[in-house]
Amino acid sequence: MSFFKDLFGSHGGTSDALPAPTGETALDIEIAAIFRMLADMMGTENLVIQAGKMNAMALMRSENRRERVLALMRILEEDPMLAPPPSEAEIPEILVRMTEEIARIRVRRDLEDRIERKVTEKLEQDHEEYVEDIRRQVISEESPGAESPHDKKKREDLEALENIRLTQSVMELLRPQNFDEIIGQERAVRSLMAKLSSPYPQHLLLYGPPGVGKTTAARLVLEAAKKRAVSPFGEKAPFVETDGTTLRWDPRDMTNPLLGSVHDPIYQGAQKSLADSGVPEPKPGLVTDAHGGILFIDEIGEMDEMLQNKLLKVLEDKRAYFESAYYDPDDKRVPPYIRKLFEEGAPADFVLIGATTRDAEHINPALRSRCAEIYFEPLTPAHILTIVENAAERLNVRLGDGAAQLISEYTIEGRKAINILADAYSLALNRLADAEIEQIVSRETIVPQDAEQNEEHVSRETSASPTAPPLLVTKDDIYEVAQVSRLYQFGRKKASDTPAVGRVFGLGVAGFLGSIIEIEAVAFPAAEKGKGTVRFNETAGSMAKDSVFNAASVMRQLTGRDIHDYDIHVNVIGGGNIDGPSAGTAILAAIVSAVTGAAIRQDVAVTGEISLQGELRPVGGVFEKAYGARQAGISTLIIPWENKKDIPEEHLGLTIHRLKKAEEAFAVLFADEKWKEKEGE
């Protein structure tokens, strides 16, 4: 039997054992095995075809081992011109290489086969899903409103979440519902009303400390303005509120909730019908949501400067415009509403109200120039008392002696005062047994305000029983809240009826909050006349230190004493970092008192720059400083004459002296006239 016949034919099955192969027969067997591997891998028919293409058929049938190996080489290397046959010595090595090559080809083909099977399976799966999507779409078109079991389950889960409500927050419960409940901001509210209820409402910037009612006042004023015949605000005018700290400028204009953005069809996923057509989709922002109403931006001073410039452009144009490299005005597939947005922009005619706790310089000057400015006033202890008492009444709380007063010492923010009361309320309630709590607070099912629109929406809220006894909240509860929350008393009463030598109250301001500055001075005769020294706090700024030298000149004019004859130490109690000239008059009074022994009244505070001629020069922040004085228990305030228009008469119940000269201030400040005595008298 020939080799070719042995390879592709049948042995007919014999049970006789083959003789052990010699060296030559072992090579022949290996060659035959390689041919069989090729036949298994390629298929017998394909192997024959390939051998024919490579001029290897005759070589395969040859009895010559070298020619059979050459046939294998031509088939594997796909080279019909390969010649001559290898030598007998080369054959073993060639067979090893062929075996390795066939193994690599088999591994590669197995991998390709596995990938191909997975691709086929994935295509079949995708096809099934696509067909299912088409089926659902057809069903939806034929049966509008029909939902699949999966969609129904998701909807039911969502509705179940909607029906779960905790009791409303204290701030929500106690939020002012009318202007009478906004405490301490009567002038600001009147100004708001005048500017918004006009036929020509103005853009506004609201300045003031946190928690004094800026946002609430704006909401209530809009509701009141809607009812005015001359107001341009319609019945459905929106009040859109956002926070400037969360708004960031995106130079790509891909994500801009304030001004709007464009969802391109590639990266951001416009709706499917548009994405399939390659049409970008503009998404109007908050400026369009506020069209016809008010856009309220809290903490506008924190907003990115570039975004402020962009907002200014919207205010000028009363429209928000969109751009996209994917928009083709000649594309007939672009829907009319998208074409309108790109070519005409989205309407954005609204009134801007920006609120900030920062100074005006943090607002873009161009934006400021287009806005009226309203300053909300800091709250006094009396205001905090009123807020706490009103909140206690609505919570059905009886305040123990001094509890409300104590809260007013820890904050000047209405919001924070209510939070302190709420925390104390929880502490007091937690001390009671469940039976006692049931008498004070009833938990019942109530229908919310929107019940007419949604009768199935029912929630459970905690509410005080109309006949329930009030819950007692004591000073100890307030102290515990303060300790747990690490609160510190905002304003301690520092004023007294006892005059003191070398100690005076100045006034400072930070942001919109005024405060007392305690300045003290001591003086000793210098060891050698004319060689005395003056020492000031290291934390004091250069302008505050310069005030000492102005004070030296004025002291010599008024008392005839030379500051260089004394060793003087001026100290700001508490290590306060003061700068600017506004403490000049206070520093002068402290030094004069220390040098002359004249006592200074401790119920008086003074602010004002002191000139070399002893004149009180105007300073800033007088209005806010008055609140700081009132917080500290001061009854009398001295301010420069030129600041007389900055503060109303008897503001906050203070006796206010508007003076021009240092000696006029001394007449009010000093409890005696020792400062007039000449040295040696």
What would you note in describing this structure?
Helices cover 43% and strands 15% of the residues. With 681 residues, it is α/β, with parallel strands linked by helices. The chain folds into 4 domains: 1-9 and 22-140, no CATH class; 174-266 and 275-375, Rossmann fold (3-Layer(aba) Sandwich), CATH 3.40.50; 387-484, no CATH class; 500-676, Ribosomal Protein S5, domain 2 (2-Layer Sandwich), CATH 3.30.230.10. The strands form 9 sheets. Strands 2-5-8-1-9 form a 5-stranded parallel beta sheet. It has a 4-stranded mixed beta sheet with strand order 15-16-18-17. A 3-stranded parallel beta sheet has the order 20-23-24, with helices on both faces. Strand 17, helix 21 and strand 18 form a beta-alpha-beta unit. Helix 5 (65-77) packs parallel to helix 6 (91-142). The model is unreliable at 10-20 and 443-464 (pLDDT under 50).
